[in-house]
Description:
This is Nitrogen regulatory protein P-II. 21% of the residues lie in helices and 37% in strands.
Amino acid sequence: MKLITAVIQPHALSAVADALREHGASGLTITEVAGYGRQGGHTEVYRGAEYRIDTIPKIKIEIAVRDESVEGVVDLIVSTARSGRIGDGKVWVTDIVETVRVRTGERGADAV
């Protein structure tokens, strides 16, 4: 099993979540986060004063999937969240050593 983590633009969340639901994703975790990548933040003007914003608001999505579903889910997230502009986000995949469903005690792939 794998954990797919995606950090995307907030405006892409509903499209990505809907696409994952249609794909058959059984559940995902969504977190509001802030950070920066290559763009390193940006400057804004408020009441005539310019100030720097070092972190950009993003959405982090985490979804546990079976090994055979990884490529399809990653491709789905990337194609749905891509706008072609700087700051679209990142997706990475990590191994899950163990999964336990708290309610039933199921373990492994059955817990997803």
